[in-house]
Amino acid sequence: MTSPENPETFETPETLDVLRRVFGYDAFRDGQREIIEHVVGGGDALVLMPTGGGKSLCYQIPALVRKGTGVVVSPLIALMQDQVDALRTLGVQAGFLNSTQDLDERRVVEAQFVAGELDLLYLAPERLRLPATVDLLDRANVSLFAIDEAHCVSQWGHDFRPDYLMLSGLHERWPNVPRIALTATATEATRAEIASRLQLDDARHFVASFDRPNIQYRIEPKTDAKRQLLRLLQTEHKGDAGIVYCLSRNSVEKHAAFLTENGIEALPYHAGLDAQTRAANQSRFLREDGLVIVATIAFGMGIDKPDVRFVAHLDLPKSVEGYYQETGRAGRDGLPSTAWLAYGLQDVVNLRKMIDGGEGDPAFRRRQAAHLDSMLALCETVECRRVQLLNYFGQSAGPCGNCDTCLTPPESWDATVPAQKVLSVIVRLDRERRQKFGAGHIIDILLGKKSAKVIQFDHDSLKPFGVGTELRESEWRGVVRQLLAQGLIAVESNHGTLLQTDASSDVLRGERKVMMRREPERPATKAAKERKAPVELPAEAMPLFERLRAWRAATAKDQGVPAYVIFHDATLREIATAVPTTLTELGRINGVGENKLAKYGTQVLETLSTPD
Ligand code: ADP
Ligand code: ZN
Question: Domain coordinates of the chain in residue numbers?
Answer without folding.
Answer: 7-207, 215-343+389-403, 412-518, 539-609
